[in-house]
Amino acid sequence: MSRAPVMKRAGGSAIVAAVRRPLLLLLLCFFGSPARAQPSDAARAQATTAYDAGVAAFKAQNYAEALERFERAYKLDPSPVLLYNLARTHQEMRHWTQAIEHFELYLARVPDGDDRADVEARVRTMRNLLAEIEAAKADPPPPVEPPPAEAPPPAETPPPETPTAEARTAPGPSLRPYAYTAVGLTAAAAGVAIYFGVEASGAEDDHASARTGPDKADTAQRAEDAALAANLAWGGAGLFAAAAVTLFLLEPEAPAVALQPLPGGAAVGWHASF
User: Fold this and answer.
1) Quick check: pTM over 0.70?
2) Alpha-carbon dihedral angle through residues 125, 129, 134, 136, given to the nearest 10 degrees
3) How many Å apart are CA 57 and CA 142, to the nearest integer?
4) What digits encode the pLDDT tens for the residues 94-138?
5) Which residues, 6+ apart, have CB-to-CB distance to 54 below 8 Å?
6) Per DSSP, which regions of the chain are E strands?
7) Distance separating alpha carbons of residues 240 and 184, to the nearest angstrom
8) Tens of pLDDT, residues 69-84
9) Residue 247 CA neighbour count, 13 Å, CB half
10) Torsion angle in degrees (nearest 10) through CA of 116, 122, 126, 128
């Protein structure tokens, strides 16, 4: 098959290579391997057709079809050129092992080819890639730890309840029992004051009617003591009365002030409970 490899550059060197390789193939066929059967003309024609289809598929980057065509052509006519084309197709498909094998077969068939340095460079590059792949398999990356689970959000604190109108207006403890007690004490103190006032008045009358002597001095002392007791009782009655009024005023339910709207103004009312 007088065809140049797929990836050769166009120009004089490519034409020379296209001519030299078929000649080398013929020399190998006749002198290098006398036991190999030569393909028939029909097989060569079929191989050429398959080769042309493979080149077209390779240029269209349809490498799977190109590989199939080149393999068919190589079975019909095992030319070294087809070994090169098979190696290049495997290389484009990243079949590194197959590409290396076909390149090495090509170098064995064409040991003095002018593209030997390029082919050997391709083989070295692919061997390095294979070594890196094997190293990556032998030393896999450390497993990625999953991120820590997020803590659940804190429970929302319910807002403080707003006191209702009833709670705001609920009265405190009643002061009326204390107020009533103060009223009772006021009455009792007033009664005592009245009693001693009467005693003081009677003692003064006795003092006025008594003659000189111990009786007169005694009535005077009784009148003075009764008047003092009456004054103290009246003072206590006043204090108890003031306390009673204060307790009634501090009662939670009273006093109360109410504002009532009226046409053209408003009225203010006040009431207290006793």
Assistant:
1) no
2) 140
3) 42
4) 999 999 999 999 999 999 999 999 999 999 999 999 999 999 988
5) 6, 65, 66, 67, 68, 69, 70, 73, 85, 89
6) 256-262, 265-271
7) 8
8) 999 999 999 999 999 9
9) 18
10) 90
